[in-house]
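Input for the complex:
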Amino acid sequence: MKRKKKIQRVVLYVSLILLTFIFLFPLVWMLVSSLKDEFQIFRDMKSLKAFLPPAPSEVEGGYFHNYIAAFQRVDLMKYILNSLIYTTGIIVFGLIVNSMAGYALARFRFPLAGFWLGVIIATLIIPPESIFLPLYVLVYDLGWVNTYTGLIVPFIANAFAIFLFRQFFLDFPKELEEAAKIDGCSQIGIFFRIIVPLSKPVFATVAIVLFINHWNDFLWPLVVASDESMRTIQIGLQYFMNEPPIKWGQVMAALTIATVPMLLIFAFLQRYYVQGLTHTGSKN
Amino acid sequence: MKGNSSSAKQLPDHVHYKDPSEPPIKKVPPKRKKRRRSQAFQEAMTGYFFLAPALILLGVFLLYPMGAAFYYSFTDFYILKPDDISFIGFENFTYIWQDAQFRQAFWNTVYFSVIVVPVQLAVALGLALLINKKLKFRVFFRTAFFSPVVMSLVVVSILWTFMYNPNEGLINQLLGLIGISPQPFLTSPDQAMNSIIVMSVWQGAGFQMMIFLAGLQNIPNHLYEAADIDGASNWQKFLHVTLPGLKNIALFIFITISIAAFKLLVQPMIMTQGGPLGSTKSLVYHIYETGFNYRDVGYASAMAVVFTLIVLTITIIQRVLIREERG
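Predicted:
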């Protein structure tokens, strides 16, 4: 019996290590290869050295030569900046607009409140992919092609975010607001001075969800920000893949750069992200 | 305005009905009742003030395009000739059934979804069950399985295109180490879609694993203890305690993966441009090309309408199934 358990344990750990390899090796290979020159990448791929960083003596021009070259080849800085403006814009306006809407649906009685909630939830089913074409035509008519406005404004209102905020505010104790009302605070004052500061977790969750979605966004920036100066990082990455000469080391460096912000978010704020999504998951 | 005051009239009753702790209405003096009415009006105004920005934005940038897509689908709207637009009835829709590319894209998408959905669900559940034990380095393993999620679909697609490179790619080199001959992967019509499937499961499973883990931790421990007392085997515990406890979460994940799978676009767009021989062209990709490359907005919109109807049908069927399961 004891021996059987021991064997089970060994099998468990061996399979876990194997799985770890399967899930990690592309990431490790990307990071490690971004530090090597082309010759080293192809030479090391024939053995497990593919997953080891190069020895310091082997690297000419420093560990980060591919990164420097990538930044020199295209205006990566501009792409990153565009991505940051795009995501920050959506987060700032999105938090205000969606939290207000969620609060209205959680707290106030007004005609058609239930109807609007139904409409908002129903829009969750509309696949964004199916409206991109007419949305592009609309944004084109508004003269917003290749502007930050065109990138940001159509995606400020977000049904999922409204829903998350509403769920959170429903559980929020009413007493505080009533006390503030008696003190003569206006509804807007109550919301921004009392509710918002006490709702940091849900704001953090929504901000992270919005950041991840739009930092990684591909289709909309591709069609609406076609101009080189407006490209986001996800669009800019394709340059390294498609424009000769194709340098594997530079590709891996560029991919790593595009991943760093996500890595930071998950390293420090993963809790909020998973919490938010499982919360809605169990409530649906 | 009149509508507001008439519905406001009913408010005290409504409040009373919802909240029995509210003092009985007859005790409220008539003067106060009047004030309440105007309060209700004010509340409605504030409510709409808070809701309006979101409603307007959703209306303009989601519902209007939705309606526009429906309208365009009955026209010959062409981006380069925006003023020359005429109504052509169901012509676009009848053309869909003759369009061999559409049919191919449709079946490619179905193939992708039918494989990715169950496989990804099973992998995610398997990983969650493996991790949900007392383990050394548990956090390390969990982080490892989750790590592909931190990369964007674009990054992952580019990375795997290089890994799948038939001559110099990492995967063929690794396969060579264990004695498997080089595979063509993305360059072969037979293997391209399967290669994309493997990558997609690899990228997505860790995320659903996290949701399953949260679900597993919500299953009360005393259920397992009770099963132990009854002398249940591990397999019986899994079947009668774990699975029923995860049902809701599994169904939620099932719906999300299904819809996401049917929207397949980024992977083929970056990795294969729909090739070779159209073997990885997906539905959304075909719509994209028709609209943005060939500028045929009318026909692309008709396909978008059909695509939306398919996604809606999937959602509704799954919702109905869930309701039956629950009932």
